[in-house]
Amino acid sequence: MIDAEPESIQLIQKDGTLLEINTSGLKMMEVESSDVLIGKSVYSLVTPEYQKAYRLMHESVCQGSKETLEFEMIGFKGIKVLKIFTVGKHRKFIEKKHHYCCIKSIPHNKTMHY
């Protein structure tokens, strides 16, 4: 079902472990197989300057909030600017809470500022 979505859809466990990712997410991350990502921490994919904000957003969502955050992700072929939309509802999964999120790529601003 999540593979039919045009945007990246991910299921992330409370501790930050990626449990599921759809085909659009694999393309965004620039990988061919989910095996490269499943079971890994999503925190390692967020650039250092956005780590704290991403963690706070994720913790808030795991408490039931809906959040939106613009951040930079480290893809396998470079850094991308993304916007994450989270779903605050969660279910029990192996004794830990988790949530779904939708991640959209934001086109780079082509204007250079000096």
Can you put this structure into words, describing what you see?
This protein is an alpha+beta fold and 114 residues long. Helices cover 17% and strands 34% of the residues. It is built from 2 helices and 6 strands, in the order E-E-H-H-E-E-E-E. Strands 1, 2, 3, 4, 5 and 6 form a 6-stranded antiparallel sheet that branches.
What summary fits the major beta sheet? 6 strands, antiparallel
CATH homologous superfamily assignment: PAS domain
Number of helices: 2
- What's the structural domain tally? 1
Radius of gyration computed on alpha carbons: 14 Å
Order of helices and strands: EEHHEEEE
Low-confidence stretches: 90-96, 109-114
Distance between the termini: 45 Å
What CATH calls the topology is Beta-Lactamase
Shape descriptor reads: globular
